[in-house]
Amino acid sequence: MRAAHHESPRRRRLARLLRATLAALAWAVAAARCARAAAPAGLPAGQYGDLVRLGWQIFTDTPRQAGQFVGNSLSCSSCHLGAGTQANAAPLWGAVPVYPRYQAKLGQVVTLAQRMQQCFEFSERGWEPPLDSEPILALLAYAHWTARGRPIGVLPAGAGLPALPVTAQGADPLAGQTLYAADCARCHGDDGHGRDSLAPPLWGLASYAQGAGMSTPAMAARFIWANMPLGQPFSLSPQQAKDVAAYIDIQYRAPDPRKGALAWIPH
Fold it and tell me: What is the pTM of this model?
């Protein structure tokens, strides 16, 4: 019994080391895959193809390509993985067929262009580009190009984020802190400030503001469960995803611009 007792901590250390090694390899593979997927292939010739390419550039490098409307270091592809084409990561081709749609947060019907404006204001912590501005028109062209051949009004499989299974317990931010240190900090940093477009900042002024979709713990948990750690989808349990989302949610971020001077108060 003593031998088994002494082996247990060693096995746990080896298991943690193996898990960290596999996670690092998965991240490297995912990073290489994203690096190879440079410009989208098969673009049409002419002005439409040029506009789609510009939309891809803005989507994948938003601070540099549309910096006048951006207030942090995030790109659209920081949340919409695979340059907006990855299933279960809110792909663009999953949004195009269902807009215009009713938005409960505003109590009104919004178009896809208006939804993109909101992303600039909340997720990018910036300013809404005019609906007829080049960034919005280019992003719309790119979004519609990713959805080519798909039926309108039908929600395709893999669109949006998958529903999180019901768990027996509520979210535990303390458990989430432990999980974050083990599975997330190696890419996003102990301070949550990230390191690049594949591991963006999760809190602080360089990250998304309160009021962004990811600032809702339930939404963040769905994203984490389906996509994190990068390259290891659905490797965390639903409970673990909820816990990590709860921990991220209690960190500081810029206030919701709709709530005025008291918006710094945690929501």
Answer: 0.83
